[in-house]
């Protein structure tokens, strides 16, 4: 009952504050608003169980246009992740020309380090990057998992089609990790502004 009254008050305030804008609300504005709400940590925590079982119910917060603006920024970041400026991570290489380095693709969140293989590490990863989650893991952890070398269980596939080697994609993965670090940092800045 209290939540309904708060939502009604917020709705009335929003209508007063944005009377001139109400006819200007587009489908994209609504989509951006919803996108922001779905990234709101308070919303995700409050409706955690419901979100696992049913479609999300979207509350109406006080300032529609502020939420739509946050959603637009988030969407621009997430859609255009390949074109954002790479985050300046420190790359440490220890060359050994004698052998091909074994891929590791492991993250040490406490120290902000990603070990790519026996020769290359990335350092200087901000702590807040690990807080931006895609499902139950961070965006960087998701990338590391996707690029791991995995041995297929099927012997025919293993014998004839197991040609993926991390070393062939190493530079691409480093660039992707740096860009997704930027996206994660900027996403967490926007999410940090979302106070109800």
> How many helices in DSSP terms?
8
Cα radius of gyration in angstroms: 22 Å
List the secondary-structure elements in sequence, H or E.
HHHHHEEEEEEHHH
Detail the poorly predicted runs. Answer: 1-7, 13-20
Count of the domains:
2
Q: Biggest sheet: strands side by side, in what order?
A: 1-4-3-2
Which term fits the overall shape?
elongated
Helix content: 40-55%
**DSSP strand count:** 6
Global mean pLDDT: 85
The computed structural class is alpha+beta
How would you summarize this macromolecular structure in one to three sentences?
The protein is α+β, with helices and mostly antiparallel strands and 196 residues long.
Give an account of the 3D structure.
The chain has 196 residues and is α+β, with helices and mostly antiparallel strands. The protein folds into two domains: 2-79, no CATH class; 90-190, no CATH class. It is built from eight helices and six strands. α2 crosses α5 (64-79), α5 packs antiparallel against α8 (170-192) and α6 runs antiparallel to α8. The longest helix is centred in the last third of the chain and has 23 residues, at 170-192. The chain is elongated and about 65 Å long.
